[in-house]
Specification:
Blueprint: H1 2-23, E1 24-26, E2 29-30, E3 48-52, E4 55-62, E5 69-73, H2 87-92, E6 96-100, E7 110-111, H3 119-133, E8 138-143, H4 145-156, E9 161-167, H5 176-193, H6 198-203, H7 207-216, H8 222-228, H9 236-240, H10 250-254, H11 263-272, E10 281-283, H12 296-302, E11 306-308, E12 310-312, H13 318-334, E13 342-344
Parallel strand pairs: 5-6, 5-8, 8-9, 9-10, 10-11, 12-13
Antiparallel strand pairs: 1-2, 2-7, 3-4, 4-6
Helix pairs in contact: 3-4, 4-11, 5-7
Length: 347
């Protein structure tokens, strides 16, 4: 009897150890088990993987391989699941859709250490993915962090891109002394806000308070955050799927803190590329986003070819609130049709 108990305990310990080892691909690098992504609602797209440095990056690749490519980059704390309502519409119109998961999100590998994440690292990984896929005449769409990262990918190799669409995002920049002291001052503002509960944050959602909450919280409640930002209860589990427990969430908690960490580099992207942009550029912000409200003005003022369309009845995650409407709008834009001044979410 005693020996049997020992054997059972030893077997359980070995199985547990094997599972931990399987998830920790290398010291400090985690990989979410595939079982976390089974039975995800409305998400039947096949996974694709690319090794970029020491990280395995996941991406969706849907539609005809010879179709004109659309690159969709998500923000935080989401993953390519965010585009599930848009991808079938693009594919139905004959386009090829590439939707990667940023490092630390979705099915892509995840660093345990928050210090391993940087704005520049994410740009480098996405740039390498685009180059290895040899994408050309690309339409780029970015929202939230997807815009911050993707616009830098565009700026690094603008000849690959035919047009740009942005929504509820930005490319924060500064030159001179502001470029040097902007980020330290921002970190001071986050420190001043200090720790807060999600209930505290809900009383006054501003960008510094959002960053402070993410930075200080012990275990970011991704599902509750997505519900707060408008996601239906039925899909909350899909946004929680990449994160079996707190160790997987380093990216979700540190990325907001890094938003103004590349002010001078972003200003260089503005001056060398976007201030001189001659290709189509669509600005499609929503009317109900407390995080990026007013951010469209910078694009409209600085990008010579910028067109503006307001999406009414949608919040921060426009892909959730008005995904089909945004996809239809983008197709009209890509095909060179006249665009309305605004569209309305049918949600």
């Amino acid at each position: 009897m005693y020996m049997s108990i020992r054997i059972v305990l030893l077997t359980a310990w070995l199985i547990s150890g094997t599972l931990v080892h399987a998830e920790e691909i290398k010291p400090g690098i985690l990989r979410t088990p595939d079982t976390r992504f089974t039975n995800i609602a409305d998400f039947s797209f096949a996974p694709n993987y690319m090794q970029v440095g020491e990280m395995r990056v996941h991406y969706l690749d849907e539609g005809p391989k010879d179709g004109e490519p659309i690159l969709l980059i998500h923000g935080e704390p989401t993953w390519s699941y965010l585009f599930r309502k848009m991808i079938p519409i693009f594919v139905g119109a004959g386009y090829r859709v590439i939707a990667p998961d940023l490092v630390g999100f979705g099915r892509s590998d995840k660093y345990v250490d928050e210090g391993a994440y940087s704005y520049a690292m994410q740009v480098q990984h996405m740039s390498e993915l685009v180059a290895k896929l040899d994408l050309k005449r690309v339409t780029f769409f970015g929202q939230d962090w997807g815009g911050l990262i993707g616009l830098r990918v565009v700026a690094a190799d603008p000849d690959r891109f035919a047009r740009v669409v942005v929504s509820n995002t930005g490319l924060p920049s500064a030159s001179g002394m502001r470029g040097w002291i902007g980020y330290p001052l921002f970190k001071l503002a986050v420190w001043w806000e200090g720790p807060m509960t999600l209930e505290d944050l809900q009383t006054d959602i501003t960008f510094p308070r959002w960053v402070a909450y993410n930075y200080h919280v012990d275990d970011l409640p991704v599902g509750r955050i997505m519900s707060l930002m408008g996601a239906d209860e039925g899909v909350v589990a899909a946004y929680e799927a990449p994160f079996p427990e707190q160790r997987y969430k380093a990216a979700t908690q540190i990325m907001p803190y890094l938003v103004p960490s590349q002010l001078r580099e972003n200003e260089s992207a503005w001056q060398s590329v976007f201030d001189r942009w001659e290709k189509p550029f669509l600005v499609a912000f929503t009317d109900s986003d407390p995080v990026s409200a007013g951010g469209e003005r910078v694009f409209l003022e600085r990008v010579p070819t910028a067109q503006n369309v307001t999406i009414r009845g949608a919040g921060h995650f426009v892909q959730e609130d008005a995904g089909p409407e945004l996809a239809d709008l983008m197709i009209e834009f890509m095909q060179g049709h006249d665009l309305p001044a605004e569209i309305t979410s049918r949600r």
